[in-house]
Design a protein that fits this description.
It is a single chain. It contains five helices and no strands. Helix 1 runs antiparallel to helix 4, helix 2 (47-74) runs antiparallel to helix 3 (102-118) and helix 3 packs antiparallel against helix 4. It is mostly helical and 167 residues long. The protein has helices at residues 18-33, 47-74, 102-118, 121-148, 152-158. The chain has one domain (18-158). The chain is 57% helix and 0% strand. It is elongated, with a radius of gyration of 18 Å.
């Protein structure tokens, strides 16, 4: 865990990625408050639908716990913006041993869990958009992390980006 070599003057919030935060908020609002399907019906019916809703709520709780624990493990390094704070430390312990972006992982799990709960085709599309968005956002964030922490490149080679052991 090295000190962050970013300049002593903080760049503007726009230079630190506030647009990513705005887009993320809009996508999550669409996921939770937007229409779930074009027809207004669920994909599945009967007992399967019941079990998928139950699985969805279970996964939603797992994703929520994962995101909260990851945020707590960041401690003072936590920022809503994707650019690291001045003076931040690189965290590679806890959930960060298994995935480089465990908060994003948790939100992705929550997004697909919400699809299982609502069982709407549009909700599945929103969840896929959120995954794609986090992939794009994490690329920019990792550019900043490599700049701030030269050892981040080695960390990238050892640890999955968004999905533990997969991607």
């Amino acid at each position: 865990m090295n000190d962050n070599p970013l300049p002593s003057q903080p760049p503007s919030i726009f230079a630190r990625g506030v647009l990513y935060v705005v887009i993320q908020a809009l996508l999550l609002a669409l996921l939770f408050f937007g229409p779930t399907s074009v027809s207004g019906t669920r994909i599945w019916t009967g007992p399967l639908s019941y079990w998928l809703v139950w699985l969805g709520w279970s996964l939603l709780m797992v994703g929520l716990v994962c995101s909260v624990v990851a945020a707590l493990q960041l401690g003072n390094n936590l920022t809503p913006l994707p650019a690291p704070k001045i003076g931040a430390k690189l965290v590679r312990s806890g959930l960060y041993r298994f995935v480089r972006h465990p908060i994003y992982f948790g939100v992705i799990i929550i997004s697909f869990a919400w699809f299982l709960i609502t069982q709407g085709t549009l909700t599945l599309g929103y969840a896929c958009l959120i995954f794609l968005f986090f992939d794009i956002k994490s690329r920019k964030e990792e550019h900043w992390l490599i700049t701030a922490f030269p050892e981040y490149t080695q960390y990238q080679q050892r640890v999955s980006k968004l999905l533990p052991l997969i991607y």
